[in-house]
Amino acid sequence: MNSIKRKSLGHYLVIPLLLLLIVVILIPEIWSFALSLTRYVPGGNIEYRGLLNYKNIFLDYSFWNAVKNNIIFVIVVVSLQLLLALGFALLLATGFKGQKIWVSCVILPYALSPVVTVTIWKYMLNYDIGIINFILDKIGFEPIPWLSNSLWAFIAVIIVYTWKQVPFTFIIVYPARLSISKELYEAAAIDGANEWQRFRFITLPILKPTILVAMTFRLILAFRAFAEIWLLTGGGPLKSTEVLAIYMYKEGFRYWHWGISAAVGVLILLLTMMMSYPQMRIMYRQMFQNE
Amino acid sequence: MGLTKYNLKPLILWILLLLVVIWSTFPVCYAVISSFKMPKDIYRYPPTFIPRIFTFKNFVDLFNNWTVFPQAMFNSLVISLGSIVLTVIISMFAAFSFSRFSSRFLKGSAFFIIAIRMFPPIIISIPLYPILSRLNLADSHLVLIVLYTVFQVTVMTWIFKVFFDNIPKEIEEAAVIDGCSPFESFYKIIIPLARPSIVTVSLLVGIYAWNEYMFAFLFVSTNAKTTPLLISEMMGSLTGIAWGQVFAANFIQMVPVLIFVLLVQRFLVKGVMTGAFKG
After folding, report:
1. From B114, B119, B243, residue closest to A29, measured CB to CB
2. Would you call B23 and A163 a contact, using CB atoms and an 8 Å cutoff?
3. Rounded to a whole number, what is the distance in Å from the CA of B230 to chain A's nearest CA?
4. Among A32-41, A81-90, A160-169, A277-286, where is mean pLDDT lowest?
5. Which range is least confidently modeled, B59-63, B135-139, B179-183?
6. What is the number of alpha carbons within 13 Å of residue A119 lying toward its C-beta?
């Protein structure tokens, strides 16, 4: 197959990567699965409990609360990201003077730490001195208790997370939109297609595969959201913004229920793998597409 | 089409653009400007956008009250550079294998790498934390460097692989015929040609490591405290948040990255795209 005769060397070059992944991810994850079948406190004894941890998790109201929050969070956040990113991409693709500056503006939130993002938004969402309540007041609305009310805290988490993540989707959708040739639109215009028809029958079908890829990735990543939510609300008030990653963190690092936490980790992994499976197949095929 | 007739369409588009730009940049601008306000003006209601008095007081206060801040910046720098070097070396080697060779071993490895890439980082904190703290390794630069590398290296392998695929094999073959050893042809020919992809990968890994919060929060307490972790601690102060100092710290933490991103936007967009499509 290969004209260059150094097949053996070719194999060795991938080994550092494999070793790293096996030692730091695979073996700990197997160990984690083992822990999920035990009662364990770091430094203490390990006691086999079979599937008891899983049973207890499924009987725990907080777990189902976290599942519910996570599902709503993922659906809303991913839809918003896709809509905004697509809208931004279509708008910017019409072409403006100083295009590069505007593109940079849109991807700006990407470069921020989740910590910096949350500090800024916490200040803007402050009930007493925040600029958002100030603007709401100016246009005739009551101030909103953003972080102390369960529903508003959930909305705040969605806004902040979406704000931070839109650039990732934009970076994928925007170049794809730019790569659609102008002639297609011109031809359609000659045939009498209006703006909506051109969007519906040219832009959307061509962008569909790209949007699907972006969607899969954003689903998987939103499902594991931790930093932004933890920093903004800590999962509160009254667990109203607690998602699975926070539930898992608290079980382990706060309540010291290491076995239960490990079991939640196993469940998160299983769900992630189910969501990723179609994408993994596509990636695997692409990897060897050149042959 | 109807709007074009009256030439309203460009105006509407510019207004929409303005809204998009405000949405994306206002929070950042507001934070940057606030870091130069007098502390009492930051608490003022109604809030003002432009500082009434322009001052560096917050920066002075930050370095006086949070003497660990320079150390945290240094830790972040060491950890970011360490992650970049380790990720580039490991993923470049692996990508070269995937780009130039084919075997059942490599196909199996590819499947393993793709699957591992999907693992949520938080789930390995539970098994790793007890082991690392027993080995007294938890609160170290090395742990964060390795963790950041491990969760970036699979994507970066893809980015390098896509790039290597575009370098014709004939170049290396010619070099081998001219008497280069395979290893020489790799570092004398491939690495120099791969420079743009090295920039892209370094940038993506650097931004991630410089900004990361979760692993720092879970594993690190004092020795390897990073800037984001320190800022999050400033927010958790029981005596009330000193917003001025938080904004000063935000400014120092984010501005270098923002300038960097603006300068090399092209590499960034390309990298994220490749990472998303080819794996």
Report:
1. B119
2. yes
3. 10
4. A277-286
5. B179-183
6. 34
How many angstroms separate the CA atoms of A70 and A67, rounded?
Answer: 5
Q: ipTM score of the complex?
A: 0.89
Contact A171 B273 (CB under 8 A): yes
How far, CA to CA in Å, does B12 sit from each of A83, A88, A279, B5, B173?
19, 14, 38, 13, 57
Mutate to test the interface with B, among A83, A115, A163 (most CBs of B within 10 A): A115
Query: What one-character-per-residue DSSP string does A138-157 give?
Result: HTT-PPP-TTTSHHHHHHHH
pLDDT in tens, A61-115: 999 999 999 999 999 999 999 999 999 999 998 888 888 888 888 989 988 999 9
Q: Does domain A62-287 have CATH number 1.10.3720.10?
A: yes
Residue B12 has pLDDT above 60, yes or no: yes
Ordered by start, the domain boundaries in chain A are: 62-287
Burial category of B187 from C-beta neighbours within 10 Å (exposed 0-12, middle 13-18, buried 19 and up):
exposed
Q: Which of residues 177-206 of B touch A (CB under 8 A)?
A: 182-183
Which fold would CATH assign to domain B65-277? MetI-like fold (1.10.3720)
Q: Answer for the pair B168, B236: CB distance below 8 angstroms, yes or no.
A: no
Query: Residue A203 and residue B79: Cα distance in Å, rounded?
Result: 43
Residue type present at position B217: F
Residue of B nearest to A124 (CA): B27
pLDDT in tens, A23-54: 999 999 999 999 999 988 887 888 898 899 99
Taking residues A174-190, report their average pLDDT. 86
Instruction: For residue A141, give both structure tokens.
Output: 């609305």
This prediction has a pTM of 0.90
Domain with CATH 1.10.3720.10 in chain B: 65-277
